[in-house]
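Give me the 3D structure for XRE family transcriptional regulator.
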Amino acid sequence: MSFPELLRQCRKQKHMSQAELASLLGVTQQAVGKWESGKSSPDPTTVAKLAEILDTTADYLLGLFDPTAEGQTEERFFGSYVYSLIPVIGTVKAGYGALAYEEDYGKEYARVKDPSSYFYLVVRGDSMEPRIHDGDLALVHRQDTLENGDLGVLIYGDEGEGTLKRYLQRGNCVVLQPFNPAYKEMVIKGEELNHLHIAGRVVETKAKW
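Predicted structure for XRE family transcriptional regulator (209 residues):
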C-alpha cells in the first residue's frame, strides 16, 4: 500500500477526522487531505509526528515495514484491523504474590480493533507452563469482568498483588488456576472476593526470542 492509503487507513483506525489529525499536528485540514490524496507529501519530521499520533511507525506509514508479510492467513482471523504499537506497561509474574508494575517497557505490534484498550505485560515465572513461558508477552484487553474459563490478569490483596491465571467460578468461590500442575490453585471466597480486582483478559501471548 502507498503512503496516502496507509495514512488514511491508520487515521480511520483511530476514529479520527482529518480536522482532528490536523489540529494535533498544527497544520491545516487541507494539508492532511493533500497527503491522503497523494497531491503532496509531509516532510520526515511530520511523518514521525504522524506515526506517534497514530500509534505506529514511520517505516509502516512509508510502506517500508509490513508486519503481515510473513502470514497471509491472518486476515481470516483479525479482519482488516491495522497493526498498531501497543505499550508494554509492566510485568506480571505467573505466580502468586507478584506486583504488576506499571512501568514503560517499550511497545510491541498487535493487530486489534481499538489499540487504546490493550496493553502488553511480560510474563515472569513458570506457573503457566507448558502453554505460557517466562518472558512471553501477554496481550491484555482492559476490562473489569471475566467469563468462566477466561485467562485473566488479576490484582488480589490490599497491596495490589498481580497474577496471570485461568479464572474459574465454582459456586460462591473464584478459583485462580495455574496450568503447571506443580502449582496449587488459589481459592478466593467470602470477604476475600472484595480484594480481587480484574485488570483485563488475556487475548493472546507470544514468545520473545
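Residues 40 and 176 are 55 Å apart (CA to CA). Let me know if you want a second pass.
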